[in-house]
Fold this protein.
Amino acid sequence: MATRRTSREINRQIALSLIRAHQPVSRAELARLMETNRSNVTLLVNKLLEENLVREGAQGSEKIRGRKPTFLYLNSEKSYAVAVDVRASRTFLMITDALGAPLAEIDNFATEADPARFVKTLSRRVGDMLRRGIEAADCEGLGIVVPGMLDPASGVVINAPTLGWHDVNLLALLRAEFDGVEIHLENSAKACALAQVWMKRGGGAAVNDLVFVSVSDGVGVGIVIGGELVRGRHNSAGEFGHLPLSIDGPPCSCGLNGCLEAYISNPATIARYTGSGSPARQPGSGEIVELSIENLMARARAGDSRALTALFSTARYLGLGLASIINALGPSLVYIGGEITEAWDLIELHVRNAIGERTLTAELAATPVQIVPASENPRLRGAVALVTAPAFAAPKLA
Ligand SMILES: [Zn+2]
């Protein structure tokens, strides 16, 4: 990530990352953290103060060279960012300050199948949220994550099977509604993986080889190897959701049969419980109202053995899929996001057993799997990181 940047820009990003991680921080402390001298830091900080990215706050109590140091903070108050998590069933919306801290309750609405109508609704909902008392004046940008293959540069959603969107120029539609706002698009799972990398950096130990598996209406996978997001030639790398577990398996949203997604997505788990056979949602058919995965998990906890069995099967298939991902990539850490993480205490053992069954070495079998709870809104965090992180995204330090 750092190869084509000037050292000045890199130092600026390192400084911002360190201030974010250690604030309030004095100039002397910052110089120590950056392993550089005070005059370098003074130059850097003056520039950041000028750009309004950093502000000075309270004074420290201990005198250094006869005077009390003034602490530095990131300036997060002057602007806001909009984060959008598009899912096949519902779309979630969050407004944050410039550091990604939420400024209001998360809003959500049923995702419309027609992209143009969807963007109109989104624009209205963002406007409503802003009118309900967001003080900050400037919009830092809008980050939107979509479950499917897309090209972040052109803003075209190439193929989002669960949404039924093919070759949709989402960026053009968004630009028409959000005039003058900087817009960042990314695949949901890729954004989640990036957000994990960015959150770890500046905070100490960096994990440079990780996989984020998002289990929801569909299944998305974001891969970071050597600190870099793996995109592949057409930005489609990581489509492990369509790894075939069985060529004669249940139909998948992609039109084929037996993909991992067709075994472990929320609709797949629900279909296993209701016995409705076909887990594939009709693309763009909107929300499933009959039974939610949350309902199913609640029934399992209440002692409904069929619900528990459906979850256990999903856990086993998830573990088999993870084993293939682990065998193929050898990550240091696997993150799991999605509603099903709320039942992790029930299913973890089944997931781990299946991983153990199909990984090729004991080391691979022992790969740590960590859940990111739904309450942490990893996809919204991924979306907001697209806006807020680039300024802070220091090259990897570890
Ligand atoms: Zn598929």
About this structure: The CA atoms of residues 1 and 283 lie 36 Å apart. The chain has a mean pLDDT of 87. The pocket of zinc ion is lined by residues 242, 252, 254, 256, 259, 261 (CB under 6 Å).
